[in-house]
Structures are given as structure tokens and as C-alpha cells.
Amino acid sequence: MYFDSLSAALSMDGHGAYVWSAYAISLLVLVLLVRAPRRRQQMFLRQLAGEQKRRQPGLTAKPEVE
Asked: Tens digit of pLDDT for each residue in 27-39?
């Protein structure tokens, strides 16, 4: 193994903060890139279902009692 201990791997001769933050930011961006289309799709499907419910005659309107 290149590093003698876990602390040496984390510090990387003083460059660890930069290296590990770069990995964290990259991972965060990748997760957001995967989640964004799924979230948009779920919102679209929810809106579409609501629109279909509103367009169906007789299901949303209650009969008036005189």
C-alpha cells in the first residue's frame, strides 16, 4: 500500500483536504445529476395524474342538493 496508515492517507502530505473535498464535490454533483431527472419525472407524472383527474367528468363535482 502506498500510505503507511489511514491518517497518512487522509492527510496526503498536506494535500488531503483538497483531494478529499474534490472527491466529495464530484460525488455530490454525480448524485445530483442522477436525481434531478428522476425528480422532474415524478413531478411531471404527479401533475399529469392531477390533470387527468380534473378532466374526468363527474368524479370531482358533487351533486347539488336542492
From this structure: 999 999 999 999 9
Give the residue-averaged pLDDT of 5-22.
87
Q: Where are the alpha helices (DSSP H) in the chain?
A: 6-11, 16-55
| Contact indicator for 17, 24 with CB cutoff of 8 Å | no
1-10 long-range contacts (CB < 8 A, ≥24 apart) are: none
Q: Using a cut of 0.70, tell me whether the model's pTM lies above it.
A: no
DSSP 58: T
Nearest CA-CA partner of 10 in 1, 24, 20: 20
